[in-house]
Specification:
With 350 residues, the chain is an alpha/beta fold. 42% of the residues lie in helices and 15% in strands. It has 15 helices and 10 strands. The protein has a 6-stranded mixed β-sheet with strand order 1-2-10-7-8-9, with helices on both faces. The radius of gyration is 20 Å and the shape is globular. Bound molecules: ligand F0G. Residues 59, 61, 84-88, 155, 185-191, 240-241, 287, 289-290, 317-318 line the site of ligand F0G. Its cofactor is pyridoxal 5'-phosphate. There is a cross-link at residue 143 (Isoglutamyl lysine isopeptide (Lys-Gln) (interchain with Q-Cter in protein Pup)). Pyridoxal 5'-phosphate binds at residues 87, 187-191, 317. Catalyzes the gamma-elimination of phosphate from L-phosphohomoserine and the beta-addition of water to produce L-threonine.
């Protein structure tokens, strides 16, 4: 049927819900898997983009949040809390509003994109800016969830991972099998953990014949997994993945090693180049952090470490409208003209 009921209904048998679970949904999931023509040409591979910015609040977080908020309601919670670099807070605020729950969010002061701040506020979240980074926010949120009657909905909550694994299911359902390689940005490392779980579940029961190699990419100034050490003061223009001590670090290493994959770093320059390529050539507008997956793929191909002919999926995690600053700063300022066709034509080079 053409009606999409949201991912919990679509994958009900593979998720921890019962007939009496009160499903909270905004019809998230079923996002486009777009063939990437130019990136395929450059790499000699068959590359697709899993466009997660097409979710209701504009990021992949909605997959996890439909599950986390559904289970919070089922368990009788009245309030939820999260730490966030922006997207988790936007998603938690929306799903909490839908469910009639109080939503508290802790964000690093001055380090989240304006669109995400707007989303959290418009959906009625109680938002505190913390004088610290994301890692400080997560430690604080975890402590509050222990000491006060409020449920933590960060990806340390296993229901988040359960929801997010459905992206891997959708890819296999569309392609007919798992790809050879799956690329994605890595921040707190929940999403790479979730995809790996989803791919493994499909392979375990024969729905897929195999699992892909998992390729995760961190921003170079915020690459604790690549460096093998906590980054005390993480830096990158990709604020969504400005994280120095990922909660799912060990699980990300397992995804890498069990899949025969890699976790590597990409510079801000490489991220912005991929960001512009995605917008100009593939016509997919993502936020900077999302472009880390494509930046990593292109870097690996340029280093001669990618065999041509592979089928590859890159997850692009969030919508570009959330953080338009980089789109505007990278473009020439628009020219103002009088109401005059000749002047317009001259300016346009027609
Ligand atoms: N891409 C975007 C757009 C994100 O917002 C995030 C994480 C990631 C990638 C990385 O995913 O953390 O599962 O490895 N954002 C979180 C947040 C931290 O608070 O919105 P991850």
């Amino acid at each position: 049927s053409p009606y999409w009921p949201g991912l919990i209904e679509a994958y009900r048998s593979r998720l921890p819900v019962s007939d009496s679970t009160p499903v909270v949904t905004l019809q998230e999931g079923a996002t486009p898997l777009v063939p990437a023509v130019e990136i395929s040409r450059r790499t000699g591979c068959d590359v697709y983009l899993k466009v997660e910015g097409a979710n209701p609040t504009g990021s992949f977080k909605d997959r996890g949040m439909t599950m986390a908020i559904t289970k919070a309601v089922e368990e009788g919670a009245r309030a939820v809390i999260c730490a966030s670099t922006g997207n988790t807070s936007a998603s938690a605020a929306a799903y909490a509003a839908r469910a009639g729950l109080v939503c508290a969010v802790l964000v690093p002061q001055g380090k989240i994109a304006l669109g995400k701040l707007a989303q959290a506020l418009v959906h009625g979240a109680k938002l505190l800016q913390v004088d610290g980074n994301f890692d400080d926010c997560l430690a604080l949120a975890s402590k509050l969830a222990i000491d006060y009657p409020v449920s933590l909905v960060n990806s340390v909550n296993q229901y988040r991972i359960e929801g997010q694994k459905t992206a891997a299911f959708e890819i296999v359902d569309v392609l007919g099998d798992a790809p050879d390689i799956h690329c994605l940005p890595v921040g707190n490392a929940g999403n790479i953990t979730a995809y790996w779980q989803g791919y493994r579940e499909y392979a375990a029961d024969g729905t897929a014949s195999r699992t892909p190699r998992m390729w995760g990419f961190q921003a170079a100034g915020s690459a604790p997994i690549v460096d093998g050490a906590v980054v005390e003061n993480p830096q990158t223009i990709a604020t969504a993945i400005r994280i120095g001590n990922p909660a799912s670090w060990v699980k990300a290493l397992a995804a890498r090693d069990e899949s025969g994959g890699r976790i590597d770093a990409v510079t801000d320059r490489e991220i912005l180049a991929a960001y512009r390529l995605l917008a100009r050539s593939e016509a997919v507008f993502v936020e900077p952090a999302s472009a880390a997956s494509v930046a990593g793929l292109l870097k690996t191909a340029a280093a001669g470490e990618l065999e041509p002919g592979r089928r590859i999926v890159c997850t692009v995690t969030g919508n570009g409208l959330k953080d338009p600053e980089w789109a505007i700063s990278g473009a020439p300022a628009p020219v103002t003209i009088p109401v005059d066709a000749a002047v317009a034509a001259a300016q346009l080079g027609l």
